[in-house]
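User: Could you check the structure of this?
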Amino acid sequence: MSKNSYTYGSGAFGEWIQDEYGLPAYRYTLDQTTDNRALAPCNPLWRNPRDHFHQIGNDRVLALASNYGYVQLRQDEGAPKLLNDFYPPDGQYGGGIGYLADTDCFLSTYYDGNNPDFERTFGIGYYRKRVSNHKYHIDQIIFAPYGDAPLLISQVNVTNNTPNEVALRWIEYWGCQHHQLSYRAFMQAYFFGIAMKQSIGKTASRRRDFSKRFKSSFSTQLDGRALLNKQVFLGRSIADKALWMLMQALMATVFRNLTGGAVSMHEQAEFDDLAPPALFLAALDQLPHAFTCDPVSFFGSGHAAEPEHVLKPLNNTLAPRHGQGGMLLEQHFSLRSGESQNWYCAFGYLPQNRSLKEIVDDYSGKKEMLFEESMSQWKGDGISFHFPDKDWVAREVTWHNYYLHSNLTYDSYFDEHSQQQNGIYQYAFGFNAALRDLCQFALPHTLLSPSMAKELIRSILKQMHSDGSFPYGICGNGMTVPAPFIPSDLHLWMLWAVSEYILSTKDRDFLQEELPFYPLYDSPKSSQSVIDRLILGYRYLVNTIGFGPHGLLRLSNGDWNDNIVVGHVPDKFHRQVIQNAESIFNASMAVYVLEKFIGALTFAKMPDLAEEVNTIIKAQKEAVQKQWNERWFKRAWLSDSYGWVGEDRLWLEPQPWTIIGEIADTDQRTELLKAIDGLLRKPSPIGAMLLNKPLGKIFNKEGVFANGGVWAAMNGLLIWAMAKEQQESAWEEWEKNSLACHAEVYPDIWYGIWSGPDCYNSILSSFPGHTMFNEELILKEKTSPEEKRQPGNHLDLNMTDLPVMNMNCHAWPLYSLIKLVGIKFSPDGISITPALTHSQFEFSSPLAGIIKDSDGYHGWYAPVGGEIQTVRLQLQADEIFSTLYINGKQQDMSGSRTGKIVFQGTPRQGKLSWDLLF
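Assistant: Sure, the predicted C-alpha cells are below.
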C-alpha cells in the first residue's frame, strides 16, 4: 500500500491511518488549546470555537466525540436530544471521561493540552484515547456497538509502568443533564432576538433553562452494579408560556405575509420530549466499589481536567447537591509492574419494553469480544470501492459509508429508523428538514442496506397527508416544522426515492403494504398501500402543484433551493410569485423521475397510468427545451414583473437534469458542458459552484450558500450527468468534491477533513473553503442594519456553529459513485454501464456489485424474491469476451461477445452472480 496515497487529504489536524482492524481512522494530533488553526469562526454561545467533533453511532444512537475527550450521546425517541450536555457553568462535562488515581496523582482522559503523551483517534464506530505519564498508561475506547444498541460502551485498559505493585482507582464520569435540540426554543430566540436585538445563540440558553424544569432522581440497580437516572417534567415557567403565546402570534403574522398560509401546529405532537427516558451507567464486569450522583463532590471548584477531589473516594450519595447531577462509578484494583487490566461500563438509556437487567446481562456476557465483533461487522458493512492505485479513494468511500450508516436514529413517532440532515439544521435550528433530504439519503441506502432503505421509505410515506401534501419537515416528536417555506419539489424526490427502491429491490410485497397518513394520531385512522400512496403523490404533483403559463412545473416559493424566493424576492411580492412562478429545476427533474415512476408502475403492472405519465414527461421536455439560451437552460420564471431567472448567469441546479433526462440534444449537451466547465468547474478547486456570478441581493453574501457556494447535492447530480458524456471529467469532478481534496486545498480548516457541511464557500467568497458564517467573527467589522436583518446574516447564526455531520456530504459521494459505476435498475432487471476508464476496480454492496480485473468482469445482484432477472452490460467496445458463467455455470455465448452483453438468470439463494471473461 502506498502510504502517500492513503494519507492524502489528512489536512493540518492529524493523519489518516489504517487501524488494526484494517479500517480507516483519523489520528487527531493538533493541540487545539494553543494552535490557532483550531479556531473556527463560530458563535461561542453554541460551542467552544476550538471544539471539533467526530461521529460515533450505530442504527439507533449517535454521539458527538470531542477533541477535548468528552462524548455526548444523542437519542431521538420522544424528540432529538443530547442526553448528557457539555456546559461547564452548570458543572456538566458530557461523559466518557476517566480518571486513574493512586494516592498522590491522577491521569485523565480529558484533553487539556498539558500532556504530550495523549493520542486521540477518530475511528469507524469508536473514539480512542491513549494517554500516559511516567507511571501509567490508559487506553480508553468509547464505541457504539454495531446494530440497534441503545448505549455506548467504554472499554478501558490500564497498564502499570512503574517497577512496583500499585493500588489504583478508576473513576468514570457521565453527565445526565439533557440538551433537547428544540425548534420551539429556536423560534423563541429567533423572534425574541429580532425584537430585542439579541443573539440567536440564546437558543442554547433557552434549551438549558428548559432542561432545568425536570426533577432528577437517582437509584442504584442490579445490586449496586448500575446507577439509574429518571427525570420528571415540572411544567414550563410562566415566562416561557407567555413568550410562547406572543411568539405564536408574531410568527403567524410573519408567515402569513410571506406565504399567504396559516401556521399548522398539531396539539397532539410535541416540540420537546416531556418524558425523557431513564439513563443508566452500568459496570459490565466487577461490582463498583463506590459511586456518586453528586458531581460537585468530585469536581468541587475544579473542572473536567482537574477535579478538586479526584484523590478522595466517591461518597456513595444518590442526591446531587444542585442541578441535574451526574453519574460516577469507581473501581479499585491492584497492578503489579508491567501488568494491565480491563474495565467495561455502559452508558445509555432504556427504550420502551426493555429492562435494565436485560440490557446489562446481554452486553456483560460478551464484553471482552464486543469491540472486535463490532469492528468485524463494520468491516463488512455496506458499500465499498477499490482502485489498485488510489488507496485514499477506498478509504473515503468506506468512511462515507460509515458516516451515513452510523447517523441513523430511531423515531418513536413514526415507529421507524430515520435519518436526518443534521449539521446546524438539527443541532442549532432543531428540525429535520426538508423531506427531500431524507429522500436523498434513502437512495444510497438502497445499496448500502436495502432493509434500512425500506424503513426510511416508510418514514417518508408516513409523512404524507391524506390529500397528498407533505410538510416541509418534522421537528420534535412528530411536529410539523413551522417555517416560511412551501416547497414544490418534495413529491419529485419522494417519487424518485420510492420508485428507485422498488425497481432496485424488486420488493413486490412492499407495494401492497398499508401505511397510515400523517398526522398518525388522527381519528379515525386511515391508511393506504404504498403503490396507491405513490399515485396520490403523483396526482398532487400534477394537479395541485401543477403547471405555469410556460407549461413548466410551478415553483411555489422554492424548489430544491429554499432561497430562490425567500431572501431573493421582497416579502411584499411573495404571494404574487407563489401564484405564478415556474421551476425549470422541477420540470427537468420531473422528466427523469417520472420515467422512474413509469418503471415502478410497469413493475406493478399498471400500464394505463404509465401512458398518462408519459404524456406529462413529453410536455415537460418540450417546455424545458424552449428555455435554452444558446449556452445553458434558464433557472426559473418568477412573474410578469420579475421575469426569468438565469438568463444572464449560469445556475447549476437544473443543468444536470437536462442531460440525465435526455432533454438537451447533442449540440446542447456539448455547449452546456463547455459552459459548466469554463464558468463553474474549472475556476473552483473543490467542485463546481452553484452560480458563475453571484447575485447582488440575495439571502447570502457572494460565493456563500445559495449565492454561489459549492454544494454536495448539486455536484452529485453534475457528476452523474457528466458520466454520461465526459467520463474522465466526471471522475475528476468526483475527486474534486471529495473530503480529501478539500483537506489538501484548505488544510487549515478542520471541517472538510473527516466530515463537513452541505455547502462550502466558493472562490467567489471572501473566505473560500469555509462554510457560511457571520464575517464579523473574523473581520470584527459591524454588519450594517440592512444586512443584519437578512435571515442568513443576522443574529450570529453560522453554518460553522456545527459544520460537520451533514449527511449530504457523505450520501452524495456514494450515490454519484454508483452512477460512475453505471448501475441502473429496470422493471425486469439491472443494467451496468461503467463510466470508469480504469483498468481495474471493485464496487461492492449488499444489493449489487461489479469487479473489473485482468480476467474480465464479475458481478452480482441480490433482489427480493426469485424472479428471472435480465442483466444488461454496456462495456467498452474494444473488449472481446470468450466465456460467460451465470451462477457458476458456463453459458452459450453465440450472441454478442463485445460491447453490449445481455443475458438472463435466476437468483440462487438470494443472489444472481455472473462472470464475463476475456
